[in-house]
Structure formats: structure tokens, C-alpha cells
Amino acid sequence: MMEYRKIKDEDDHDVASDLESLKGKSHTVASTNIAMATLGGGSSERTNWKRKGVVTCALTILTSSQAILIVWSKRAGKYEYSVTTANFLVETLKCALSLLALTRIWKNEGVTDDNRLSTTYDEVKVFPIPAALYLFKNLLQYYIFAYVDAPGYQILKNLNIISTGVLYRIILKKKLSEIQWAGFILLCCGCTTAQLNSNSDRVLQTSLPGWIMAIVMALLSGFAGVYTEAIIKKRPSRNINVQNFWLYVFGMAFNAIAIVIQDFDAVANKGFFHGYSFITVLMILNHALSGIAVSMVMKYADNIVKVYSTSVAMLLTAVVSVFLFNFHLSLAFFLGSTVVSVSVYLHSAGKLR
Amino acid sequence: MMEYRKIKDEDDHDVASDLESLKGKSHTVASTNIAMATLGGGSSERTNWKRKGVVTCALTILTSSQAILIVWSKRAGKYEYSVTTANFLVETLKCALSLLALTRIWKNEGVTDDNRLSTTYDEVKVFPIPAALYLFKNLLQYYIFAYVDAPGYQILKNLNIISTGVLYRIILKKKLSEIQWAGFILLCCGCTTAQLNSNSDRVLQTSLPGWIMAIVMALLSGFAGVYTEAIIKKRPSRNINVQNFWLYVFGMAFNAIAIVIQDFDAVANKGFFHGYSFITVLMILNHALSGIAVSMVMKYADNIVKVYSTSVAMLLTAVVSVFLFNFHLSLAFFLGSTVVSVSVYLHSAGKLR
């Protein structure tokens, strides 16, 4: 099961505002929406919902297929490339795809204030922050294995769900209803339950420094996600592809730093592309697309939707793996999936009016 | 963990209306309550709540200490008495305690229509039904072990939670809100999760006849509980001790039948009290008191409260066992307990207005 989670970190890697001004903006957006709805417009409301649904589904499907590619590549015994070079290529590909989308938009709509690539220091200054947070988190990851084993780490990573919820509330000042909070706690419990196996109890023996590191990593990861949403939503009319372009440029830069810190020797001796295979290429392609889907979810939905989407993807992956790899589903998986399903229901039933 | 569940069957053994007339009655009671509340009375409302709370807490505490007694008696290796004779004594003791309570009430309040022991055929005709349902279920229990092992049976017994909810809705025609249904599904998942161990997955290999028997047993147990509530609530002003007395008389009769069917040889050869110990006496005492608490919960609350109460008791037992017997709590237990706690919250937050 650990593979399903493995990629979760990487796909939020990419994205990176000035929080105070966001709060003002989102308030304006909300009042505009209400004004439009009361004016009997409603059709733009519907477009928003449709767009939200499409990007959420895309993220879910891409995340599941990512996990399946990882299982596949492990089964094929091909996992010998350096992860940092792959991450760098993912950022580069996302940058290229954003530029490609922008050239099409410029051709159709012309260059406007909202879709021009050039930016101001004021707009761009916050973009490196999420990428820097992820870099720091990935470096910590090397040290936590002194305190927790790999399957234990996969269990502890579910703390990300709680940290995202708490930081979403504190930083973005968005409210969840009590029922939605109940749903969020259940999401965390359900995902963990679905991953339980006979060795899971070892995680309870984790020492205090291990717990502290796991919590710090969950906070860094949650903070990076929430901060990305803040940056992207600060300028609602700004084209998402421009915002992505700048996020990914800094993603490239920070991943270049990661190559130097973590894999300098391997790259210098065996070459940048050592160990790459067809599956690796597919994985890079998939990571790039799902990274873009994450940005879209941040733009048109929020971090909560993202967490639900990637959690449901984890369950989908296991079900698909039954057919593809003859996986056996455990009773714990069925119980966890039921809890996650109820949690999804509670999130929608508990909406604040 | 299997011991915690073991006793659950026995404590609802005791109790057993005419459903159509109940629906009419409970409607009248509800409107009386509303009328009293709107008249600014409220104090009788408060008394009701207090009584409900007291009987629920009593049931929870008695059920946990029951389970602890069972663990204790197994640890001491003393579990050699025949369960049917113990059950018969439990019913007899409950009968005696009801009579004792009634003599005190007669002394204080005098004999009235509501507290006199004599009854009509119309009142008493439905009282044997719950006891008969339990007898039938306990006989089935001997056959299910051909299809499921004992730990697997403990897992399947959580189906009782769902069957009680469904039959409560269908038979008593009482509504639960969608949020409360979500809570109820979670209660079932949470209890099962808390009981997971490395062998639990075997239950998924249960054959079709095994599943059918488990579902039939869950329906019989749920039906007996719901039917008991119907009988007791049919005559709201009737003293609960009189209702209990008649229920327990039939409980004694049906348990006498069970002795003949299941343990005739053992009782004939080794005597009625063979294998009894001090712990056995404590267990019989505890079962009798918790049986009475179940009846009280049926009178002043309902089957849903009873299910929550006994489920929370199961978790309490495990926590207490950590201190008493050096039990180790599993990660699954923590996850299951959290899900059960959220479920209790949802049951109260989701109340229909």
C-alpha cells in the first residue's frame, strides 16, 4: 500500500501571496458570486461547478494512475533512477506545457493584462515559498527514517490530512462546519485504516523525535499546499497558466538544488538519465499532468477538495490493482473505504449555508 | 478482543407488544411531551433526560465490567460451567430483583392499575416472543461455527448494529436523520476496526451459507431488541418492574428449554452448579444487573442508545484492560475508537428537530 502514498508529496511540489490581500479579494469574489446568483444569472455558477468537477476528476484519475505506474515500475524492478532528476524534469515539462497553453490563448484572445507572461516583483516574490517548503520537507525525509521505518512513515503521512485542514482554517481563514470537521477526522482515520497491515502497530513505538519530525513534515506539506492556494487565488482574474509558469520556474530551480544536495555523485558518475526506462518516462508525463491538475484544483476549488481527491484516488488505485496485479483487499481496506465514503458524504452534507 | 462481545448477546436476552398500538401510543406520548414543554413545564423533560442519562451510564459501566469479568475468568482458566444454567440463574435473579423492587413500590405508593402484578392475556401474549427469538438465535450459534471460526464470528456480530438500525426504522417506524445514519454505519465500521487483528482477513473467505447464517442471526438479535422496546413502550404508564417481571418469567422458561436441548447430559451427570466459582457468581450478578439496565434503557431511551452504550463499553473495557491485564492497544483500536467517538458526536449533532 505504501506506493499509493509515495507520489502524493511530489504532485503538490510545484505550486507557491500575500495573505492579507487574498482575504480581501476572496471576499470580493464571494460577494460578486452572490450578486450574480441573486441577479438570476446562475449560469456562471454552473460553469464554475462544472470546471470544479472536471479538474477534481482529472486529479483523482491522474493520481490513481500515478500510483499504478509506481506499483508497475516496482514490479518490473525498475526503480533505479534518481528521483531528484525525475522531479526536475517534471517541473520542466509543466513549465513547457504552461507555455504551450499560453501561446494558444494569446493566439485566440490576444495578449491582455491577465494573460501576459511578464510580471511584477510584487506578484512574483511569494512564488518561491511553496517550492522552498517542499525542498525543506524532502530533505527532512532523509532523516526521519532513522526513527521510523518506511511502512510506518506511510501511516504517519496521513497526518498531512489533519495539518492541511488546520492550516486551511488558520491561514486562509475559511470555515468548515462541525460536520465537515468530523468528516475530515474520519478521512484521516479511514485512509489510515485502509493501509493497515500486520506490521502497522510498530508505528506506535515511534520515539518522541520521530513523532516531532513527522508532525513538522505534515505541517510543512500542509503549509505549502495552503500557501499555494493563497498565491493562486490572490489574483482570481490572472490566467492560471501564467501563475503555473512562475510556480514551476521556481520548482525547477529548487529541484536543481535538490539534485546537487542529494544526487550529485550519482548524476556526475552515471549521468542525468541513468536508470530511466519507458515506465519512468510515463511516470514523468503523468506527474506533470497531475501537477497541473493540482494547480487547477487550487484555482477552482481548494485544498480540502484536493485532499479528498487524492485520498479517494488511493482507494481507487487499490481496487484497480486487484484486477491489474491480483492484489488482495483486506478487511481493513473495506472498513477504511466505507469510512472515507461516509466522510465524503459528510463533507457535502455539512456545507455551511 | 473476542471476549468483549461474547456477553452482548446474553444481556438482551431477557426482555419482549402489539406494534400497531405502540405506534399510536408513542405518538400520544410525544404530543404530551411537546404539550408539557410548550406549557413551560420543562422540569419533567429534565427528569426524563436525567433518567435516560443515568440508565445509559449504568448500562455502559455494567457492560464493561461484565467483559472484564469474562476476561478475568478466562485468565483464571475457570470457564467450565455450562452457560445455559448460568443464563437460567440470571433470569431467575432478575425476576427476584423485579419482585423486590415491586414490594417496595407497593409499600410506598400502594397497589395501582399500573403497578399490580396481575396481567391480562392481551398484555402478556407478546412477552414470550423476544425470549423465543433469542433461544432460536443461540441454537443457530452452534451451527455457524461449521462455517466461521470464533474470531470471525466476533467480527460478523457487528452486523447486529446495522440490523438493529434497519429494524428500528422499519418496525418502530422511528426516523433517524441522514447524519445519524452516517453515524450508525460508522459505529459498525469503528467497532469492527477496533477488533481487527492479524487473522481478521480470514472472515472475507466466509462461504455463502456462513454469511446467510450470520445475517439471519443479526436479524434475529436486532428483531428481539426492537420487539422488546415495542412491548415495553406500548404501555408507557405501566411500571417497568411489572413489565420486566413478565419478560423474565418467559426468559426463565426459554432458558430451561435451552438447558434441556444443549446441556442436559452435563447437568444430569455433573450437577447444575458444576464448574461454578466466585467469579461465576459475580458474572451472574453482573449479568442480572445489566439485563435490568437494558430494560430501563428500552423504557426511557431506545435501541439506538443501547447499541451506542454497549459499543462504547467495548472500547472502555479495552482501555481498562490495559491497566488490569497489561493489554496492548493496537493502532486499529485507536482508529476504531476515534471513528466510534465521531459517530457518537454525529448521532447527537444529527438529531431531527
Automatic annotation (TrEMBL), chains A, B:
Compartments where found: Membrane
UniProt record similarity statement: Belongs to the nucleotide-sugar transporter family. CMP-Sialate:CMP antiporter (TC 2.A.7.12) subfamily.
Main location: membrane
Keywords assigned by UniProt, alphabetized: Membrane, Transmembrane, Transmembrane helix
Coiled-coil residue windows: none
Keyword Transmembrane helix: yes
UniProt GO MF annotations: pyrimidine nucleotide-sugar transmembrane transporter activity
Topology within the bilayer: Multi-pass membrane protein
GO cellular component: Golgi membrane
Transmembrane feature ranges: 208-232, 244-261, 273-295, 307-325
Official protein name in the record: CMP-sialic acid transporter 4
InterPro entries to which the protein is assigned, alphabetical: EmrE-like, Nuc_sug_transpt
Domain of life: Eukaryota
Keyword set includes Transmembrane helix: yes
